[in-house]
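Annex B, item 7. Sequence and structure tokens for protein A, then protein B.
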Amino acid sequence: MGVSISLDDLLGDEVRRDPYPFYARLHEMGEAVAFRPADPHALVVHGYDAVNRVLRDPVFRVLGAEYLDRAGTRWRAHPVIRTLQASMLNAPEGDHLRVRQLFTQALTPRRVAALEPAIQRIADGLLDGLAEAGAAGRPADFMGELALRLPSDVVGELLGVPERDRAWFPSRVRTFDAVLEIGRRSMREVRAANEAATELLAYFTELLAARRAAPREDFVSALVRIRDRSPDQLTEDELLANLIIMYNAGFRTTANLLGNGLVLLLERPDALAALRADPSLAASYVEEILRYEPPVHFAVRYAARDSEVAGLPVPEGATVVVLTGAANRDPRRFADPDSFDPSRADNRHLAFSAGPHYCFGAALARAEGRLVLPRLLDRFPALALAEEPGERRQLMLRGYDRLLVRVAAPAPAPR
């Protein structure tokens, strides 16, 4: 019998807190390892080349509605799962391409470049707020004051979500996204995610109605025009689901890029000083942050027919866990993979996935990181952690919920 692991190994507390020693052990076993027969998945795929192949191979598909229906249709009673299944995340190949082509119009390189002044303006306003929150050396929550708010405001600006409404989203999005984590979810989590999905669907339904009544020069208005002119191009369910996913993904992943990246820099004074001295290095720093501490660590695919990965069989209908976070630390692909090296050459990581489901918001996330990190370091020369960062226990949307920093020296004690 060959080498195998248990899904419990991947889901254990130790791995959730720090998955990288476990990933290193996986790399010693090859590019893929079988799960034990009692586990729900056939393989874990973790080597860079194998992960890259599975994400691009049309034999390995997302778990769409057709796949879920094989086990019954009870999932259709859950608004959160219906929303996920109607979105690009889980759409079958033809529908995915059709909808993606419409939504990527919002994030062409030209449109992202045109957003850069707005990103800088939003960042400067939030840096003012962070300075106020951290005046006189008071600890300030970097995630709450800036990391979560900046990408929320940027994607809100892009879509046309009114500024007054944007603070409403983070708690609902966090609750919605909880069902994406690997492993079983409690019914309490599922019910909360269903409620969040219902509220998000209601919000965007109202926003669509408002834009139909009074169109503006924003992306939601453009999509409404497409939907009403050519209903065969985009159904109402697809429009709503993808607006929710675009908004959710547009700020959760970027917020974690900023939070994870800041901790990496503050724990490495030499790397921080080099970026502070030369802000033009920011793009390479963003790439290494994404490789070293990616916001997303895995995807799941199923085999549409009998196949194999790295010589291991995958029967038709069986699922594989694709560990992009491990692929980014593969010593066969990256020299000294557990070292943070922003000067790393040929840094083609898989933090944004690969193939048809490559993240269409990648250019925007990169721009936000490249523009914001140097401004943050320039604005606060005394920037430091106020306490040890809290635990991160997710593999999907991996980041800090709270990150206390000091942006100024403490006020002198009264005599």
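Protein B:
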Amino acid sequence: MSCKCIIVDDEPPAIKVLENYISTIVQLELLATCKNAFEALDVLSSQRPDLVFMDIQMPKLMGTELLKTLPYPPKVIFTTAHKDFAIEAFELDAVDYLLKPISFERFLKAVNKVLQVNYPLPETRNFGISFVYFRSDRKMMKVFIDEILYIESIRDYLIIHLEGNRELRVKLSLNQVIEMLPEIKFLRIHRSYIISIDKITAFTKTDVEIGRIELPIGKSYCSSFSKLVPTNANLPNGVEERE
């Protein structure tokens, strides 16, 4: 069962950020985006979403005022650049109050307040997704899951290494990214590396090879890696175990 949601915001960049975040959460289904409260009223009456990501300061009718007009309001997460409306928002029983710019970690924390109770995670995280969006160079970049080789953490940034000698630089943590990716396809092997399981070409007890690239396996990650390839008989096709 999915949680149907809409975005109500008059700022296109803010909408893009939320669309990207929502696309990474398998339980969320985005029904529509609305540029003002009046568009939202039509969608709320016709599609009846479970959750609304609502800006507060919008033309003609504010988000808090819109919420007050609804006899049976859905769950609401306010998204705003202003701190001044927090008390009013929680008086209206808002799930959460997110200040722009909104980090993925903070977004996920707010959404989990809804999902953990009413929309539990499936057994496999993000199973079946074929792509995700990442913000890079002020753009939302579409990245296909099968093109990712490995992800490298460098200080405050990540480098997503892609097929064809391509790279994407994003400002996220490895913990944030691993939640966005299908757990059956990706594995964290080090405090600085996430690898695509399908792209492993060889390995030992201490390192993994992806093509010509050799990556270390951290001591605290050896157990999870050994569960992936516990014996020579269980090796994925085309993978070589080196002595």
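Comment on protein B: The mean pLDDT is 86.
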